[in-house]
Design goal:
- Chains A, B: It comes from Pseudoduganella aquatica.
- Chains A, B: This is Aminotransferase class I/II-fold pyridoxal phosphate-dependent enzyme.
- Chains A, B: Pfam families: Aminotran_1_2, GntR.
- Chains A, B: GO terms for molecular function: DNA binding; DNA-binding transcription factor activity; pyridoxal phosphate binding; transaminase activity.
- Two copies of one chain form a homodimer.
- The first copy, chain A, has 472 residues and is α/β, with parallel strands linked by helices.
- Among the domains of chain A are: 72 residues, Arc Repressor Mutant, subunit A, CATH 1.10.10.10; 242 residues, Type I PLP-dependent aspartate aminotransferase-like (Major domain) (Aspartate Aminotransferase, domain 2, 3-Layer(aba) Sandwich), CATH 3.40.640.
- Chain A contains 16 helices and 16 strands.
- In chain A, the strands form four sheets. In chain A, strands 4-11-10-9-8-5-6-7 form an eight-stranded mixed beta sheet, sandwiched between helices. Chain A has a four-stranded antiparallel beta sheet with strand order 12-13-16-15, with helices on one face.
- Chains A and B meet through helix 4, helix 5, helix 6, helix 8 and helix 9 of A and helix 4, helix 5, helix 6, helix 8 and helix 9 of B.
Amino acid sequence: MKLYEALAQEIEDMVAQQVLRPGERLPSVRQQHARRGASPSTVFQAYYLLEARGVIESRPRSGYYVAPGRAPTAAPEPEPSRPDGAPRSVDVSELVFGVLEAARSRRVVPFGSAFPSPELFPLPKLARALASSTRRLDPWSTVADLGAGNGELRRQIALRYQLDGAAVAADDIVVTNGALEALNLCLQAVARPGDTVLVESPSFYAALQALERLELKAVEVATHPREGMELGALAAALERHRPAACWLMTSFQNPLGSLMAPDKKQALVGLLAAHGVPLIEDDVYGELYFGARRPALAKRYDAPGAQGLVLHCSSFSKCLAPGFRVGWAAPGRYARAVERLKLTTSLAAAMPSQLALAEYLGQGGYDRHLRQLRAALMGQQAQMLAALAEHFPPGTRVTHPEGGYFLWVVLPEGADALALHAAALERGISIAPGPMFSAKREFRNCLRLNYGHPWSTEHAAAIATLGELIRG
Amino acid sequence: MKLYEALAQEIEDMVAQQVLRPGERLPSVRQQHARRGASPSTVFQAYYLLEARGVIESRPRSGYYVAPGRAPTAAPEPEPSRPDGAPRSVDVSELVFGVLEAARSRRVVPFGSAFPSPELFPLPKLARALASSTRRLDPWSTVADLGAGNGELRRQIALRYQLDGAAVAADDIVVTNGALEALNLCLQAVARPGDTVLVESPSFYAALQALERLELKAVEVATHPREGMELGALAAALERHRPAACWLMTSFQNPLGSLMAPDKKQALVGLLAAHGVPLIEDDVYGELYFGARRPALAKRYDAPGAQGLVLHCSSFSKCLAPGFRVGWAAPGRYARAVERLKLTTSLAAAMPSQLALAEYLGQGGYDRHLRQLRAALMGQQAQMLAALAEHFPPGTRVTHPEGGYFLWVVLPEGADALALHAAALERGISIAPGPMFSAKREFRNCLRLNYGHPWSTEHAAAIATLGELIRG
């Protein structure tokens, strides 16, 4: 247990024992530092964690307070998945399109949405970056930057890789039309129709749809809701299926929110390299961590000895500029192949979006924005967890992810998330039912909830309504 | 022969007979109208046509003059192609990538480029539209417009279809990441790996690359350099191959510049409908006509009785905003399928680009810009044709397209365009060698030249250099 986790546990115990009572003010960071000798960052992390758990809450310009009302009785964590491991053609699109279409109206409470609230993004600053960068647009850049993308933007992305300990040259980055295109291009670079791809269980539906469209087979691998894909199950699947690739989200997986520990990521890269199997690492949520620092990238362990087999994909769509449609791939040894696929499928990403993001990143406000965004998401997670604890029936299990903006909820056996989806929509609430996340349409009693929107009384009421619908 | 064509012929004859001498001023439009009774639009069209042919030239604020120097001795037109009609797997990518890469430097004379000069586009006005539309950006539009694209932009595009006589509802338009993505999505909507697709001969290399990537087979159909694909050959190929689709450019085909007459387009749509074969109509050059009005769309003849089998694709990349990467498809009965493919391959086109174009189109300056662009391209075509007539060896054949910005040059037998490409590049000149445009790598003695850039002494010298290299 880390220092901040120990401190958080200590305070949570004090709350449970009523040493600290609801509404009471916690010692300030300065006090914890001066008296106890804890470093400010340890205290901040402990308080953030407690806020995420709903134990305490922050009040602007005042400090941290024990959350009012009841002590949180957090629901227990779900069990790891146990898929049967058979290769399957994928056919989830009809279900997915139906759910997404339903969730698109802005009058619906967006628990089923795949995006955080656009209100959490620095839109005015991005608009200024768009205007100024386009005014200075070199007409010839539209030709020179075809294929791999704008040079300055790729340089800015390479700088962030360097800070994250992964050596990626700007020339080996391909800017794409969002991470979804990056995923599609990477899959095409390493797999042919009929091939098998290993995925998590549950898995992000858009990846399943990409497999479906490319006529690839999915093998779902057992996945722990907090720790990610189980390497023992992965090793067995590698032996059994000789897959063309493994696709997974190493940090804050969608829908589970699971986070692989750094040594597990290293072992993952080593295991796949030993089998010569490329890893497509989808890392779009990696910046949305609630801990002290950004989770390691599996790409970091893709040393030259590991053969350049990690194709790292990410984007700005979840953490900065959703409508700009700018993502990228750092495809290792497949960089040229992915660049050529980009040229033949859509030529280039939109230049105004690329130039504006390059300018925005060069101005240096990105990390400040990310800190604000993470703090907002942590607080919203705490609010939703507390509401679930209050309104969902006993026997419900819920993840407590350390980042991202999704909760995975396992309802008691017999619950039907598809029926709940339909009933909730009639009450103006969207959810993402579990079968969207499985080639076999499993997880019938599960749902994914989005806490990426500022909490409101409407949201609280919607959780209560869902609870009523579940209880029937 | 139309009135303006007759008038143009009359004047061209006068020049050939030295009735009008080089440098002499032509009667003004007002004079032609007042004395001869010709309508101003007829006179303008005749003069435009003569300018395109290099017979006359315009001088700003002064009028039209007979071109100086020699009377143009236009090279004869190439013969129709006679491909063998066998289905072929496509493998042109290495060649194409090599040529495109070489042409990318701005220090190279861009005769091999696929784009007109970005200097011909209204970049400052687009930058202002970007800035103002993004300032007013509704954060929720980034979610609401996923998939098919921004509603206002689709409405503006639908308005233009209406003016062109094609009934396309805004809801049936899918905005894409350029016309290349539109083509890819349409191909995926109608064909499966292993299927056969009919294409022109020669054919646009990016379409051949798309077939290659999607593991489709190409059957090249005989194509007339001025009138487009030959319907007799098409009918035979339909009987013989039972193709999944026919892909072609009905107006100013790349690389030939061929233009199908309206009744031929109507017959084309009827013929394909009779076989139940979808037509993917790539129309990215349709706005770049030199005649009196926009060429008809084949889509126009896709009446409800014709089953909605025409998938019309276009973009703003060739005529307004190349780097914005905004194209679209109007896929008829396949609209929903294409929309879903868009959702699963790249989610949406970039929102800033879409909003800026919607605003620009709403302001009403697009048609004025297009008129200026067409006039520039016509003049540049005339300059290049004249230079070719002067410097290329006897026996050279050249197209005289009525729109677009490509010439197709057929060199005397035995000439080697690939060797010419390599030699020209060493002299700082790019060309697009003929084998890029054929699954069978035919057209070894052909090249495509781009006249989409303002003519300069450097360009004139480059044509002379090419002539020297060809003569050896």
